[in-house]
Specification:
single chain; Immunoglobulin-like; alpha+beta; about 280 residues; 7 helices; Diaminopimelate Epimerase, Chain A, domain 1
């Protein structure tokens, strides 16, 4: 199935608001404590400090993270150059190991893979409480080369190259995708699009969707192929609504899977209202 129905929610207001509300509910603690990196890393893989480094260094770091993903690894990075970058938790400045654990625990409902922190005091890494001994050995041998935003960003990029080259970022995918079917209003006998939100910390998902009636009978199904999905978009499937469709009790049900086969135990379902 193509992704022609994907839209960023600023362009698709109603569905976008629903996806944004889902986003806010998902990690209330991260958004409530004023930690800037926790907000940014929900939808991106790199957090840069303020003032920002040069575009060249920022792009190099983003490229190294993208290359790590291309090799099958997963990694998020936060570059912390001053207390300002920590928002409401400035006391953790100078403590990259402690901050890596703090931030990793904030993100754990959304992301459980290696998380790298770089500060002038050094690097820290956290992987959902799992061993990071392989990463720590490289980190100990290659401290940041300076304290400016550019120094820290370029040091992070260089370290990631070494981590990927040595295979130190190996980690098991344990988190199922987050998926939410969105309510819809359709017209009998007409074409409709049914929307949903889905994302996974691996960056890729496939979905199974179904229209069910009040008794649970399946009226229509869809399956997608494994492909890239992101948190700040909604997705959709087309439905040619039958002319003789039940007016009440319909629902769209969604189950999402990642490449490792992880999935939530129960499907996400939302009501589908039929207009005559």
């Amino acid at each position: 199935m193509s992704c022609g129905g994907c839209r960023k929610y600023p362009e698709f207001v109603i569905r976008g608001l629903a996806a944004l509300l889902l986003f806010l509910v998902l990690v209330p603690a991260a958004l409530a404590d004023g930690d800037p990196a926790s907000d940014t890393l929900l939808v991106r893989n790199v957090f840069l400090p303020y003032p920002t480094p040069s575009s060249q260094n920022g792009n190099t770091l983003s490229r190294e993270v993208a290359l790590a993903y291309g090799r099958g690894y997963r990694l998020k990075v936060a570059v912390i150059a001053s207390e300002r970058d920590l928002g409401a938790v400035p006391s953790l400045f100078g403590h990259p190991v402690e901050y890596a654990k703090f931030l990793g625990q904030e993100l754990q409902q959304y992301y459980v893979w290696p998380l790298l922190i770089v500060m002038p005091a050094g690097f820290g890494i956290y992987d959902g409480g799992r061993s990071t001994a392989a990463e720590a050995r490289l980190i100990a041998s290659a401290p940041p080369t300076g304290s400016s935003a550019d120094d820290l960003t370029s040091s992070a990029a260089a370290l990631i190259r070494r981590l990927v080259a040595t295979g130190a970022l190996k980690s098991k995918d344990i988190l199922p995708p987050y998926a939410s079917a969105l309510s819809a209003t359709v017209s009998a006998g007409k074409e409709a699009r049914l929307h949903y939100a889905v994302f996974d910390d691996s960056g890729r998902t496939r979905e199974r969707l179904a229209i069910r009636d009040a008794r649970g009978k399946v009226l229509k199904t869809w399956s997608t192929r494994l492909r890239t999905t992101v948190a700040n978009k909604t997705y959709s499937v087309p439905w040619k609504v039958p002319a003789e469709v039940p007016k009440k009790g319909l629902k769209l049900c969604l189950t999402a899977y990642d490449a490792s086969g992880n999935h939530a135990g129960a499907a996400s379902c939302a009501p589908v209202t039929v207009k005559r």
